[in-house]
Amino acid sequence: MKVLITSGGTTENIDKVRGITNFATGSLGKIIAEKYIEDGHFVILLAGKNAKLPDPSDNLKIISISDTQSLDENMAKYVPQVDIVIHSMAVSDYSPIYMTDFGEVATSNDLNEFLNMKNSSKKISSKSDYQVLFLKKNPKIISKIKEYNQDVILVGFKLLVGVSKKELFSVARTSLNKNKADYIFANDLEDIFDGQHIGYLVDENGEKIAHTKSEIADLIFTTTLQKLKGEANG
Q1: End-to-end CA distance of the chain
Q2: For 85, what's the count of Cα atoms within 13 Å in the CB-facing half-sphere?
Q3: What is the CATH number assigned to the segment(s) 2-92+141-233?
Q4: What is the mean pLDDT of the chain?
Q5: Burial of 4: CB neighbours in 10 Å, binned 0-12, 13-18, 19+
Q6: What pLDDT is recorded for position 162?
Q7: Which of 26, 115, 128, 231 has its CA 20 to 30 A from that of 181?
Q8: Tens-place pLDDT, residues 121-165
Q9: pLDDT for 126
Q10: Residues of the chain above pLDDT 90, percent
Q11: What letter does residue 40 receive in the DSSP assignment?
């Protein structure tokens, strides 16, 4: 069996030396990958530049991911080849398109002009006290996965901050239906600290709780294999 796991975070370049990224470490993706590798399954790990990685293995292929575009390109290539996709990567919602001096923006008669501009220098000048950065919304990669392989078992992730369980489950089920996922792992940032990582594997029928990263990996591993075997027997 082949499993594709995304892990860590993306980095969207502003210029050759600056970028927008996030604090994702890839530690959960690493643990999940190790579960499948230990059981003899082949794992394709699409990992952000600073993501924690499993030890080398004949059953592991690691591909370094830079930005959302490179993630999408590799998903399109590898998702058709696998049985399970676990999309745990923290993907940037926006990409920079243009950065400029605040004065240039303040004196402009048409802000729309900046949406079609690009920075030509490899390193944007830092002389100005204030800069304005224009961002463009990225496509949601999870929404494309079932297009690349309609038969793949898909586990998506949803991270919120300081919400009720009712809202957490509601948002997870919206993502479940919208993206045609089989499961969404829903968690709240306020429940992740000091070795604790409380979250819920949500599907059409209910929610299953896990309390640590190790329990999350076990839950996802066991649930996806059971589903795969059920579909094969069906």
Answers
A1: 17
A2: 32
A3: 3.40.50.10300
A4: 95
A5: buried
A6: 97
A7: 26
A8: 788 888 888 999 999 999 999 999 999 999 999 999 999 999 999
A9: 80
A10: 87
A11: T
Find where tokens 């999870």 sit.
Answer: 142
- Are 124 and 15 a contacting pair, CB within 8 Å? yes
Confirm if 123 and 17 have CB atoms less than 8 A apart: yes
CB atoms within 10 A of CB 108: 12
Three-state secondary structure call for residue 170: helix
Cβ-based neighbour number of residue 98 at 10 Å: 19
Query: At a CB cut-off of 8 Å and minimum separation 6, what does 106 contact?
Result: none
State how beta strands 196-203 and 206-210 pair: antiparallel
The yes-or-no verdict on residue 98 having pLDDT over 90 is yes
Please state the domain extents for the chain. Answer: 2-92+141-233, 94-137
- In this prediction, residue 119 has a pLDDT band, given cuts at 50, 70 and 90, of confident
Residue-wise pLDDT tens digits, 31-84 = 999 999 999 999 999 999 999 999 999 999 999 999 999 999 999 999 999 999
**Residue from 221, 232, 231, 223 nearest 34 by CA:** 221
Residue holding tokens 């829903």? 186
Which amino acid does the sequence have at 207? Answer: E
How far is residue 191's CA from residue 222's CA, in Å, rounded to a whole number? 23
51-87 burial, b for 16+ CB within 10 Å, e for fewer? bebbeeeebbebeebebbeebbebbeebbeebbbbbb
Q: What is the pTM of this model?
A: 0.92
